[in-house]
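Sanity check

After download, print the first record. It should look like this:
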Amino acid sequence: TNTPFIYLATSTDLVGIGATSTDVKFYVQNTGGGVASTTFRIDGIVGQTGQLLVIASSSGSSIFHVSSTGQILASTTLDSATTPAYSFIGDDNSGFFQNAADNPGITTAGVLRFDIDATDIVFTPRMRGPAGSAAAPTYSFSGGTGTGIYGDSIDLFLCENGNCMINLDNGTLR
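Expected structure tokens:
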């Protein structure tokens, strides 16, 4: 069937909505609402408990789905630092992945850089912060924003209640 709104090629199983032809399996084109209108929308039904959307591989394995409550889930079957589940076009070895159960990770250039589990947060690159001050140390503690550690280009300072208590000045403790 070929109309101004629906294109169906039964010999190739191609379907187009809002298009007169398509070269992909399913194609939706906004033809009348302008750039601010919604092109594609999926609505669940009242009481729905199954998945709202499932994207599967050619073998039928779920790759990505959206639950009826809106939770977005990605399969972690092939998930790793080198192939993170959430990555970027043109940079598919950097992103977010599940390192292990209850253990998300952040990867860049295919290498785990930031690892979170129930007891630790581990950084593999250097962690740098701004210079800070006695009143607002770079690294402080909850409940005591004026208590912590900061540095400038030469010295390291330990502060308490906004006052510098210890200063390591070019190797000399003051």
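If your output differs, re-run the checksum step. Summary of this record's structure: The chain has a mean pLDDT of 83.
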